[in-house]
Specification:
The chain has about 290 residues and is an alpha/beta fold. Helices cover about 40% and strands about 15% of the residues. Strands 1, 2, 3, 4, 5, 6, 7 and 8 form an 8-stranded mixed sheet that branches. Helix 1 links the parallel strand 1 and strand 2. The structure holds adenosine monophosphate and zinc ion.
Length: about 290
Amino acid sequence: MTIDLHTHTAFSDGTDAPQAWAAAAVAAGVTTVAITDHDTTDGWAAAIAALPPELSLVRGAELSTHVTSGGRRFSIHLLAYLFDPADPALAAELARLRADRLQRGLAMVDKMVAAGLPISRQQVLDIADGAPVGRPHIGRALMAAGLVSSVTEAFATYLSGRGPYYVSKADTELPAAIDLVRRAGGVPVLAHPRSRGAASITDEAFFARCVAAGLLGVEVDHPDHDAAARADLRRLASRFGLIVTGSSDYHGRNKAVAIGQERTASAALAAIVAASSGMTAVVGPEAR
Ligand code: AMP
Ligand code: ZN
């Protein structure tokens, strides 16, 4: 089995519609794929409809969360698998995050327009096409304007968190997000905790607090993690009994990572399935 538990479609800030996304997974030899769009479950039905017979699907989402440390706010993402999408508290929180993503995206566009950059609100809304608005959508508008040649270049310049156009977005406090996912029967897994930004605070004491809040897993093998980060995260996972996952964080043409380039062991997926009670079993040949 080849399992990739973190991918984005055009239902958030990936570029692939579900058909192309499923085809990319199959072409890469992936046998089980998770859909983890930002702050939404809107792509689930289309992903199931697009699923070829040989591909299994784990329904999930990636939640925008934060922790405060030393008076500073750090953004950190939380993967959530196999939860009940109709859980009222979780659904309401995801709706709040999506509404804020729209306002924040428009606020970033307004700053760019005020500085004379030739993009517009309507252009970014058209690119997002109803998906929760993310910086990659603005990046594609900057590409269309000829200001950058890739979304990755846009992140290094106009979209940078330290740049003049950045606006922060609403997110959930991490322990509260973990609790919401557990109460919805889902399995919370910390996403790429050693990515730039949060790496300085995701130490052993941080993991102890997350585990106390109900965290069940950690994404260890991720394109942002070097060998030392992976080794340390494996140590922490073993120390706290966390499920270890590996995933590409595929975003289609928005990011230079290939679907299936990082993988999760089948025993880890089995542990996620066993820990879930969200009424959303794996779909496809690996259904259990
Ligand atoms: P936002 O959530 O709007 O702050 O935008 C950040 C998101 O963009 C993260 O989830 C990244 O994974 C995603 N992203 C997509 N493409 C890129 C890229 N080329 N460089 C950095 N982040 C990217
Ligand atoms: Zn992601």
